[in-house]
Amino acid sequence: MSAAAPLAPPLDVERLRADFPILRQKVNGRPLVYLDNGASSQRPLAVIDAERNYAETMHANVHRGVHTLSQRATDAFEAARERVRHFINARSVREVVFTKGTTESINLVAHSFLRPRVQPGDEVLISWLEHHANIVPWQMACEATGAVLKVTPIDRRGELDLDAFQSLLSDRTRLVAMTHVSNALGTVLPVRQIVALAHARGVPVLLDGAQAVPHFALDMQALDCDFYAFSGHKLYGPDGIGVLYGRERLLDAMPPWQGGGDMILSVSFSGTTYNQLPFKFEAGTPHMSGAVGLAAAIDYVDAVGLERIAAWERTLLEYATERLTAIEGLTIIGTARDKASLVSFVLDGVHPHDIGTILDQAGVAIRTGHHCAMPAIEFFGVPATARASFAFYNTRDEVDRLVAAVTAARDMFR
Amino acid sequence: MDLKDLYRDVILDHNKRPRNFGRLEPPAFSARGHNPLCGDQLTVYAVMDGDVVSDVRFDGSGCAISVASASMMTEAVKGRTRAEAEHLYAAIHDLLTRADAPSPPELGKLAALGGVREFPARVKCASLCWHTLQAALQGAAVPVTTE
Ligand SMILES: Cc1ncc(COP(=O)(O)O)c(C=O)c1O
């Protein structure tokens, strides 16, 4: 495996780019500038090799066979779980449930944690910034139980209104579910304060970490949240694998959410005994090569260093913000003081969808639309935005290519 | 592929100055169209005089392709019979999706939409207004989506 060798700061971006085969191509005749990392990031060779190595040398079903390959697969899968535990500093591997991604992690909590404990009139508190994955599962649970969804407002910068949050926390609040970083605007939420305020009222907290995990080091014990959800494919890992971290005491008390193999200890027609944590929540054959790939992605990110990643991404964000702001007619949507490395923007007289096509012709990949966060985008009175989201492998030259293409779009529509 | 093929001057012009933009009150027929992928929303209004589309307008918001397509559509179908409008719709559909499609002379300005074919992600933008018009003419109350 070619884990990234330790580098002296600052990041040697050109060298790291060589680890990402997909970046070496031309799109529409121009070298690809990939600025859609918020939707899904690219995989280094180390991840591709790890998945391949798993398939070539150890694949069999996990937790099932006495034969050697099954043992190897089980060891690799459980080693991946330990790797995740260490990465997020959970107390125990029993707190690390593999899922297919953030969406499934949140649905699991909605189904097994929330539904059994709410009465009509109880409340779930989210924010205006949420991705649909952290809205719809709660709406469904509320509809089924008579609970009520409450939404914490944001301000014109796209920051959470903490005073409003405090006053919305009530005796009826059964769960706070908030994003750690907004995928549509880039806002980093004050999660420590959110957790402290909620816990002071005895309310558990779920954090949607899909957009946070690629950017900063995480420590579940320090953060003290009750659930944390994220996806492998936004962390330079494979798609189809994700994680639900859950506080052991809570997971233990929750009923399973899907039934099947692996999640049981014994089955008879008079009753079934469920398996222990975390297997209770992993019914069926899991995504084993995905877990192995995720562990390799974590190794890679750790070797590059999340602190150095954060520093370089901050440089890119500042540079992109400065250069985009200078384009006449361009407005940045989401100007929080604490922001992850993405820029959402609109351009006078040019619809984001047209910007997306024009940029694509220039080899620049961005996302346009509502980013699965319609309330957050509509708050700003626009139907859609264009969004450039940066990873550590992006360069200042790529920001220049973005700016040139956006300028060309504006000129075309003059 | 050339961007100038997609964004021809006539398209840029109709985007900037959409014709027949605005609403018509009932008894005009109307239908709402929505493209969830890009957030395009438009409503098409039509007044029928017997079998003839005597007035047609649209409003809403969308990308240049969907706005220009809707604007050109209103110009093209005003004063036509229902059958003629349906015929145009079929011709547009071919133009947007079939590489070998002939460009019949009755398309007129609408032929400018031919460049959209090279940009598959944008075909729905150009066809949304036509689906919506059809729904309006059928007096359908349900919103149209391109999904
Ligand atoms: C903030 C946020 N939450 C949840 C999700 C859903 O993640 P996934 O589609 O991997 O389940 C995303 C992905 O776009 C996201 O950005």
Quickly describe the structure.
Chain A has 414 residues and is α/β, with parallel strands linked by helices.
Mean pLDDT of chain B: 89
Listed once per kind, the bound small molecules are: pyridoxal-5'-phosphate
- How many separate helices of chain B? 5
Nearest-integer average pLDDT of chain A: 95
Number of strands of chain A: 17
The radius of gyration of chain A is: 22 Å
- The strand line-up of the biggest sheet of chain A is 4-10-9-8-7-5-6
Helical residues, percent of chain B: 25-40%
Largest sheet of chain B: 4 strands, mixed
CATH class of chain B: Alpha Beta
Uncertain regions spanning at least 5 consecutive residues of chain B: none
CATH architecture of the largest domain in chain A: 3-Layer(aba) Sandwich
Low-confidence stretches of chain A: none
CATH topology of chain B: Sufe protein. Chain: A
From the helix content, strand content and strand pairing of chain B, which structural class follows?
A: alpha+beta
Total strands of chain B: 4
CATH class of the largest domain in chain A: Alpha Beta
Number of domains of chain A: 2
Shape of chain B: globular
- Indicate the CATH topology of the largest domain in chain A: Aspartate Aminotransferase, domain 2
Secondary-structure map:
The complex is a heterodimer of chains A (414) and B (147).
Chain A: H1 13-17, E1 26-27, E2 30-31, E3 33-34, H2 45-57, H3 68-88, E4 96-99, H4 102-117, E5 123-127, H5 136-145, E6 148-152, H6 162-168, E7 173-179, H7 191-200, E8 205-208, H8 220-223, E9 227-231, E10 242-246, H9 248-253, E11 264-268, E12 271-274, H10 288-304, H11 306-325, E13 330-333, E14 342-347, H12 352-361, E15 364-365, E16 367-369, H13 374-378, E17 385-389, H14 396-412
Parallel strand pairs in A: 3-15, 5-6, 5-7, 7-8, 8-9
Antiparallel strand pairs in A: 1-2, 4-10, 9-10, 11-12, 13-14, 14-17, 16-17
Chain B: H1 3-6, H2 9-16, E1 29-35, E2 40-49, E3 52-61, H3 64-77, H4 82-97, H5 123-137, E4 144-145
Parallel strand pairs in B: 1-4
Antiparallel strand pairs in B: 1-2, 2-3
